[in-house]
Amino acid sequence: MRIPLDYYRILGLPILATAEQLKQAKSERLLQAPRREFSNNAVESRARLLNQAYDMLSDPETRRTYDARFLANSQETDASVDPTGEHSGLEIDIDESRFLGALLLLQELGEYEWVLKLGRPYLTSGNATSLQSGAFGDPQEALGDIVLTLALACLELGREEWQQARYDNASEALETGQELLLREGLFAGVRSEIQSDLYKLRPYRILAMLADNDATSPRRDRGKQLLQEMLDERGGIDGNGNDQSGLGVEDFLRFVQQLRDYLTVDEQQTLFEAEARRPSGVATYLAVYALLAKGFSRSEPALVRRAKAMLTRLGGRQDVYLEQSVCALLLGQTEEASKALERSQEYEPLSFIRSNSKGAPDLLPGLCLYTERWFREEVFPHFRDLMDQSITLRSYFADEQVQAYLEELPAEPDINAAGKWINQPAPRTRIQERPSKPEPEGRSGGWAAPAVAAGTALAISGKVAKDKRPPTGKLTNSPIAEPIAEPAPVLEGPADYWVESNPQAEAPAMPPLTASSNGKPPTNVALEPTPRRRKSPPPEEAEEGPKWFWLLGIGLVTLAGFLLIRMLKPQPNKLATAPQIAPVSMDGLNITLDKPVLPLPEEIAGGIQGDLTPETAKQVLELWLTAKRGAMGSSYTADQLTQVLTGSKLAEWQRYSAEAKTEGWYKDYKHAIKVDKVEVNPGDPKKASVTATVEEFEQFYTGGNLSDTRQDNLSLTYGFVKQDNQWKIESW
Q1: Is the pLDDT of residue 70 over 70?
Q2: Which CATH number describes the domain made up of 614-731?
Q3: Which of 129, 399, 541, 631 is the least crowded, having the fewest Cβ atoms under 10 Å away?
Q4: Range(s) for CATH 3.10.450.240 in the chain?
């Protein structure tokens, strides 16, 4: 039978390889044993093919004949385009008994499509004759080898698609391999490995599905279903259950923040109100924002009232007076809005509000300006169907349904009365991560958000605009200021989530409010019932009723003056000097963080030239260890390996780097080197062996967390080769 391989590729060598290189490549390839699950027959079949390739190329006469065919075929391939897109290189004849070895080699060389194309027919009833006849050895062993090779090809193909951000294709490939193993009832370990990848791929699939342009597509429904499965497995947004995704509590909060931009306001209201009943403080706060966004954009003050009730239940633990003030404003409760502002400790927004309320008897004019801009820049951009909305207070209060509701709104307890029976809320408290089980080692899917130590602050929301999305998280250190009764996260107030915007010439820059992540409330959220209509309001409401009309007039006059001054006065371009944060990208599903970018590994200079002395040997080894740190570190810069490694070692470490990136782990190294002996080959001055003592300190990270450390003192002999007048390492 014929297989789509050539002898040079089987050995991993170029056509100009020397006889010595052929011999060394064969030895190294034979030492690289396949996975232990393969049968001895498959391993021996692979070894026979490697020997066949070596025998063909080590004989000068047969090699000349083969090289002529090889070069002629290469020229034909370059001159024509294969219309099928299939492999069009050389093929070699092999005995049918070596088919299992050929499949192994194709899988090792990354020809996964060819593995599937050649191997699948042997699993169908009409093509199983060769298996049953024993042409490949024991039929049961041969079946297991073929199934294992196909499953591994599906696994690697899925990872390749994953790296290319083709998440549906990746899932399909992984599920194909898993179904194959389940059907045959073989290799539970490999099946578990594939399932682990599927779990870690799930967050990426959810984001891709929710981002579908068709808001009514079944694909989006499937994405919401997968999201709900993750939430149930975790026990809620801020739960500690294990969904096998590899995401810690804070990473998952960042994931939730990112997916919000692809959910409508109705979808977010449904999702977060349900999650708030677990209970969940984060979900409660996000439900408040969904209710406010929907209530303001659709002129439904009843939803604003529900949001206000939920905030009241959170107010005993943190400063949410600013949000309560906005709710009271939208409900026409101007005195209550003013009282809430007086209790707030948020310096920057209060400064903006006061600056824009000069000359007024209270802070309502500034609060009107603040509220409109807050909704426009910090609330609406987090909803798929509201990103382009720009609702004004004028249009909201002019709506007849809003007017009717506000006129009939019953008296409610003062939201500020909570301070009379509770301690002063802890200023600027933050989400405190509950103790969680250590994440298991393994593939994390390359999620871009590194884990943060417990106790650090987390802001689940950042300013997000349509074309420019600043950070989704803000990380600072702040201990919990006040102990609480239950071991739950503590909700963070709004001020920490504000992002600086363009300043106005006549007033300080208004820091827009963003949807913040919050901790767990003490009780389940109870939604307020819609009040029954009454013929006349109580005395307190009789005073409130006309004032919201006055509020509207004052607010509009102030807004007009504010805009006029803004147009007439030049504005400094403060954004030009602001630090730029990388935007969220759906192509790579990169979750950005408001933290310093990870340092890149030090730059590697060109290869070491000249004669090989102990000094130059040490330079080559230092070059290799620097490249190793880059390839296996958090930046995965494997391209540096080509400057110092060659042959099978280069391919091997490039593969290691790619696997580390796919699996979401990396290593940090520190080395000390001492060259003990340098011996140049007297028969070939372009080859040498270098014996060195290497002290290596290794730190292993999974999901951004330090998982293990190790220290080794190694005595190694390196094989050096001079290529293009530069010394490189080919073995050790």
Answers
A1: yes
A2: 3.10.450.240
A3: 129
A4: 614-731
